[in-house]
Amino acid sequence: MEFSQLEAFLEAANRGSFRRAADALYLSQPSVSARVQTLESEVGVALFHRTARGVRLTDMGRIFLPFAQRSIETLRRGREVLESVRQTSAGILNMATARVIGTYVLPETLQKFQQLYPDANLHIKVGGSSDVLQMVVDEEVQLGLARFMQHPDVDALHLYDEEAVLVVHPGHSFTKTRVAAMSQVAQEPLIVYDPGDPGSSYFQFINRVCRDAGVTAKVEMNLDSVEAAKNMVRLGLGVSFLPRSAVRREVEFESLILIDLAEVPPVLLPTYLLLRRGQEIGPTARSFLKLLQETYNVEIPVLLEDR
């Protein structure tokens, strides 16, 4: 039993004619007649008396009429609800971000996006990079921002590189020259930002830098918060490698001092846009992707169809 069959039945019952029902539905008379006949075959009884002057309901047709009316009304309401939800969802940006990105980088982008699209609703979830990846895979969010993560169902597009920098207390001996060798850093108590995320970029970074320099770091603290790590360094309890975006304000006001590493190239932590392959991207999420594309001067393949 199909919506079109019930619709043809109700129009014919209301208008007393297959021809007038056909005109109302912008169909041919044979099409309306065929739909009613198919419906009658499915319910197993004749619903209309056919006469030369038109049609009228049989007793069975009158019994069936209120059920058909309720069915059509329910279906119409369902369509209206779905359309309402679709339009509402179109104005939502539902995304996930890794902690450092969400704390120190994303807010400025979101502020600009809100200025461009003041009616957009922003739903932001924060977690480790592996958590962000899983939310994208499970389609809990439309997009994710994280350090590099691999999954066969997810496209990872490089957006920018975050530099990890060495910072110390203003009274530290390194501030005299503002340059230190890794052999010197290895003698200092090291405060490590440990987000507790499997495959953390920060752990990989520290291990790689120390291995390349042939030294072993003297790790004194493992903290799951960048803010906690900064506070420990400000108190003179050690030195730390932290994302440049996270210490921008402290470096500006010299509550933390940035130290260059001698003969060590800049250590970059890549940041990626994660998108579930094959997913439909709504207009608000698409607008946000366009802003990312402009901000970081990258090409996002899913936006190519908009050209």
UniProtKB/TrEMBL annotation:
Gene3D superfamilies per UniProt: 3.40.190.290, Winged helix-like DNA-binding domain superfamily/Winged helix DNA-binding domain
Keywords tagged on the record: DNA-binding, Transcription, Transcription regulation
InterPro entries (UniProt xref): LysR_HTH_N, LysR_subst-bd, WH-like_DNA-bd_sf, WH_DNA-bd_sf
GO molecular function, one term: DNA-binding transcription factor activity
Matches recorded under CDD domains: PBP2_LTTR_substrate (cd05466)
Homology family: Belongs to the LysR transcriptional regulatory family.
Name under which the protein is recorded: Transcriptional regulator, LysR family
